[in-house]
Amino acid sequence: MVNLDRIDRKILAALHANGRMSNLELADLVGLSPTPCGRRVKRLEDLGVIEGYAAQINPGALGLSICVMVSVRLAKQTPDAAAQFVEAIRGRREITECLLVTGNVDYLLRVWVKDIEALRLFITEGLQSIPCVAETSTMVILEATRSGDLLTN
Known about the structure:
Blueprint: H1 6-17, H2 23-30, H3 34-46, E1 66-74, H4 79-89, E2 95-100, E3 107-113, H5 116-127, E4 133-140
Antiparallel strand pairs: 1-3, 1-4, 2-3
């Protein structure tokens, strides 16, 4: 665990809100001069606190209008079955997140598709046809609300 002070947390919060912010803007926002601010950002990157910077893509602009969470239960909970499943879904553009979880399912997938027919095909041909998959369950996301931030604590 990395020890972060108040200024580090302000830097992280500002970059989380706008990763394209210039060092000059960031320094002004957190109350530092540019050089120490740049050093702090570099330190946070070197420590692995900041893993990278990414653009947030609007799925609707790409013609994707339906987001679902699909729970997947494997027929057997073995390393071979897990490896087979992960290999089978690797490269599926519909899947934006794959989480190995505990409980009565093995994986949760966040999936974006253009319409219900695309969802049907993805589930029946893309998931249920994988030999190690025993069961799937799909939940349509009606609204996503951000509930918290790691940096507020």
